[in-house]
Amino acid sequence: MSKSFSVLQGFIFLSILLFCMACNETKNTEVPKELAHPKLIKTIGAPNYGSVGCSLEDRAGNLWFGTTENGLYKFDGKTFQQFLIKDGLNSNNITSLLEDSSGKIWIGTDMGLCLYDGKSFTQIEIPLPKNLPPNENDLYRNSKRVFSMMQAKNGVLWFATLNGVFTYDGKSFSPFQIETNSGGFLSSNYNMEQFLEDKSGNIWFGGRGNEGVYRYDGKSVTRLELEVLFQDGPTPKPTLWAWPQLQDKDGNIWFSNWGGVYRYDGKSFTSFTKKDGLVGGVAEIREDKKGNLWLGGDAGDGLSLYDGTSFTRFTTEDGLIQNHIWSILEDKAGNLWIGTRETGLSRYDGKTFTTYSEYKPETPKN
Residue 119 is part of a domain; what is its CATH number? Predict the structure, then answer.
């Protein structure tokens, strides 16, 4: 009787052991959730250098991300495809993105413009004025950087470049001169880095090196003065320039600089700074489908959400990949895509942040 019981005990013990081993084997073969989705793979340069500095969703629903050193990425929801100089780009440093009314993708780079028609890249040369003096900044003397691009309601394309502002009517480029007494941050040949067309058709300009912002009504340019905001640091630096960012659902126009943001209601400016709970050094502002504003900065403070009343901050402690924010995009599904320093990319679905980038340096070929 005891022998039978002992055999039965052994059988039960062996069965439990085999079951546990099978469970462990199954568990070990499962792919962690963080690794299960495709990622933007950084292959060029040091891990802590570069950024995802611009982003775009095209009419087909593809997401595009421009980076420093690592070129252009297209994400179709399943895979990331990388485009580099060898694929037809004129530079691997992507500075701005635009889809025009015909569905073509304009790519601004450190070396000028490229146009993607869905099949191939064409390099576009912007003719420079003959009397344009050479750039006195040695680091950017040969650069043709395109800071930002926009297509106005009348179909005209606008380009803010290191060599000034240009318009394109579909046939030719024309320089657009805004008379100011200051040069740009990287060159004396420009003073505007970003623009915005409001609902009334006015075009707003702004850039580092200026004082105030500029409004073009189709006939003349008017300068509007701004309250001085101070950039954080051991010795706070006064900032009087601003980048036009967006016009919100209520018609307010928002501007940003390294000291904070301004909201313009058509009559006066209201400023917001870190004292109000805002992140520092705001480089990007986007409005989501609910009317909330998302603000990101390069001061290392993370991401701010403004609901019209107060600011809420998100950082790496909340799952964000990096705290220096350079680009924000809301896709058609309502997800936020946040581009950061170190060529980082996070997706926020309204509840959690998921990392969508990874560093895998190229293996040198023998």
Answer: 2.130.10.10
Asked if the structure places residue 9 within a domain, the reply is no
Mean pLDDT of 347-354: 98
* Degrees to nearest 5, angle at CA 47 with 41 and 49: 105
Q: 20: how many CB neighbours lie within 10 A of its CB?
A: 10
What tokens were used for 316? Answer: 């790496």
Please check the confidence at residue 158 and state whether its pLDDT lies above 90.
Answer: yes
The single residue listed with the structure tokens 């799952």 is 319
CA dist list (Å): 283 to 79, 217, 262, 324: 28, 25, 13, 10
| CA dist., res. 40 & res. 356, Å (int) | 6
**pLDDT, tens digit, for every residue of 241-297?**
999 999 999 999 999 999 999 999 999 999 999 999 999 899 999 999 999 999 999
| 364 pLDDT more than 90 | no
C-alpha span between 40 and 360 (Å, rounded) = 10
Identify residue 48 by its one-letter amino acid code.
N
Handedness of CA 100, 339, 337, 244 (dihedral sign): negative
Nearest to 302 by CA among 283, 275, 286: 283
Show the tokens assigned to 183: 């040069």
Q: Domain limits at 52?
A: 36-359
Domain assignment of residue 19, yes or no: no
Distances (CA, A) of 294 to 288, 299, 310: 8, 15, 12
Residue-by-residue DSSP string for 50-71? -BEEEEEE-TTS-EEEEESSS-
Q: Which of 17-26, 122-131, 140-149, 151-160 has the lowest mean pLDDT?
A: 17-26
Q: What is the pTM of this model?
A: 0.89
What is the structure's pLDDT at 4?
44
Q: Are 45 and 342 in contact (CB under 8 A)?
A: no
